[in-house]
Amino acid sequence: RCAAKLSADLTFLDIGGGSGQYGAYFYMQHASSTTPPLVVRDLTRNLVVSSGRVRGQGPSAWMTVDGTPGIEEFTRNHGPNGSAVYHANLCNASLRLPVHDWVMSLEVGEHLPTWCLANYLALLHRSNRRGLILSWSQTTTGTCHINHKGTNQIIAYMEALGGYLPWESTCAKMARHPWLRRTIVFHRRAENDTNCASTTTHTQEELEARS
């Protein structure tokens, strides 16, 4: 809900968005009142999303990408409206995605190998105009968590890339899951930084050194 409010009338890119459930949620904010409710699974229970729950507070356009093989076919054939996902290799240094106002990437980085992290962070950086909504697991207890990072370390990474300020948002406190409340950070671009399409890249070693 907070992502919908933050990106109201703006554009939104979900990187590593799985099966596109945020896209389906955004679709429901623009749907007519006669649209049947959407039921999605949230780890332990079903959530019912009614149309127009935060009407006028969703993004004007959104896009979801994920690296799961077959994700495009699956979401187009089996997903609800708005959930279509594009396949992309998030570790590919040459990957260029359309620039959006806000970029979100939740619980993705901890699943990526170390050699990929600099490419992934550079992708987040060059794909947004206004800022990032980013969470990164701090533990190895989750499935395939091979690269956990502390929140302060992630903030330092973004500062090393340049132009980001960690932004205290009540949205973080409203996260449904305790682990998400601990890890989610809103990184807003400094007002004088418009270099969203920068091709500047850093190696993982450079990011570590600068953080």
Report on the structure:
- With 211 residues, the protein is α/β, with parallel strands linked by helices.
- The protein has helices at residues 2-6, 21-30, 71-78, 117-126, 151-161, 170-173, 178-183, 204-210, and strands at residues 11-15, 38-42, 45-49, 61-66, 86-87, 100-106, 128-135, 164-167, 185-189.
- The strands form 2 sheets. The protein has a 7-stranded mixed sheet with strand order 5-4-1-6-7-9-8, with helices on both faces. The protein has a two-stranded antiparallel ribbon with strand order 2-3.
Which helices and strands, and how do they pair?
Elements: H1 2-6, E1 11-15, H2 21-30, E2 38-42, E3 45-49, E4 61-66, H3 71-78, E5 86-87, E6 100-106, H4 117-126, E7 128-135, H5 151-161, E8 164-167, H6 170-173, H7 178-183, E9 185-189, H8 204-210
Parallel strand pairs: 1-4, 1-6, 4-5, 6-7
Antiparallel strand pairs: 2-3, 7-9, 8-9
Brief overview:
The chain is of the alpha/beta class and 211 residues long. The chain is 29% helix and 22% strand.
What spatial form do the alpha-carbon principal axes imply?
A: globular
Mean of residue pLDDT?
81
Q: What percentage of amino acids are in beta strands?
A: 15-25%
Report the helical percentage. 25-40%
Largest pleated sheet? 7 strands, mixed
Protein name: Methyltransferase type 11 domain-containing protein
Give structural attributes.
alpha/beta, 29% helix, 8 helices, 211 residues, Methyltransferase type 11 domain-containing protein, seven-stranded mixed beta sheet, single chain, 2 domains
